[in-house]
Design brief:
473 residues; alpha+beta; Beta-Lactamase; Heat Shock Protein 90; 5-stranded antiparallel β-sheet; 12 strands; binds adenosine-5'-triphosphate; binds magnesium ion
Length: 473
Amino acid sequence: MLRETEDELGKAHDELELRVRERTAELLETNKALEFVITKREAEIRRINRMYAVLSVTNHAIVRTNDRDTLFSNICRGTVEHGGFKMVWIGLIDDESGMVKPVCWHGANNGYLDDIRISVRKEPEGMGPTGSAIRNGSYYICNDFIHDPRTLLWHEQGRERGFHSSASIALTVNNKVIGALTIYSDEPNYFCTQMIELLKQMALDISFALDNLGHAVRYRDAERALHAETSERLRLVEALHKKEQQFMHQSRHAAMGEMIGNIAHQWRQPLNTLALIIQSFQFTCEEGRFCKENLDENVTVSMELIEYMSRTIGDFTSFFRPDKEKSSFNVHQEISKTLTLTEVIFNEYRINIEVNHTGESVTFGHPNEYAQALLNILVNAKDAFSSRKTGSPKVKINLFTEEGKSVVTITDNAGGIPEEIIDKIFDPYFTTKGPDKGTGVGLYMSKIIIENNMGGTLSARNIDNGAEFRIEV
Ligand SMILES: Nc1ncnc2c1ncn2[C@@H]1O[C@H](COP(=O)(O)OP(=O)(O)OP(=O)(O)O)[C@@H](O)[C@H]1O
Ligand SMILES: [Mg+2]
């Protein structure tokens, strides 16, 4: 009985021992498997951590860079150094050739990119990771670079440089694919799902930065263009201002020439009379008729004549003195002043002048310049009468107020302005007179005076049998 019990116990013990051995072996296996999994996970975590570091470097570069080349170069260097990759490069599409041109790289290039031919089309050169990522506008992972049939063209070169996995991800600007970023690792199966997510994030960040760089460049360009345009405008305004002053000068000179002619006319008569008076002294003396009364009488007449001549000069100089400040002035007075100065010439041409004046005619501006505009118009009428040999030349000046403005119309009966030139008569240098007769600045200057300097309007139209100029201020 005891013997039996002993045997049973021994058996049970053996069984137990076997079970323990079996369990221990099982546990060892599980342990090994677990260790393998843990090592794999650890490696994966390391890679992911590195990829996070790459993302951080990328964002750092984005924030601190404002030109594309520096951004690309910082990203390529940062990705190799912090991600532990063999090489990284960025290629951009050359629209004309449809090929991808490397613009930046870092790592074990060693001539790999020198003659690389990668296209965006569906052809052997476009079937690798970069071409595929660009064509699809997303990414392409190749976890066995030196065996994958799609990378056949680059197997040898890749093997020499230790490229075992590669990932390409498309870069965009304003939602348009412009190229790709391609990364090589020396480990096969390097790019897991989580890595791909991080790569996608990286491409999004770069594309966002490129969009903003584009905006900044456009903004800078627009700003530069605006600056250039403003300077050009300022220059033009200055040139225009200079030109205007030149015109003003020229027009004043032309008018002065006209007025010197007038003065010569106005002086001829009194000068002749003065000459006669002086000669009369000789006669009366020779004939013994010279006496005090005769002398006094002749001196008085002479003094009046001299006074008249002096006044003419006074009128002339004040007429040509430019007005510095704007002031209120009486339009009727300016018309009278201008007519006094043209009187002699108009009489010589037997031009009949009629002035009709209704209402108050005070306005604000530059009176002398206003008178010059009037003078230009009157001289033009005289020229028209003389060239067309008008039978009974007549100028009618009407002065009235309309809607609070003083209006002057100057009408002649010289036949009017030919319709084909009526739109041009206010242009600078437009003249139908011979080169020694007209410069073509008279009406241009008159328009500048009335419209730019005084805020009024000057226009011309044809009426019945002549031209009508209308000044509103
Ligand atoms: N009253 C008018 N009747 C017909 N044509 C006129 C009359 N006034 C001006 N014109 C036309 O307008 C043109 C331009 O006149 P504007 O006074 O600007 O220049 P101009 O008289 O030719 O030369 P400038 O006045 O510089 O000596 C004249 O050449 C002429 O053909
Ligand atoms: Mg003229």
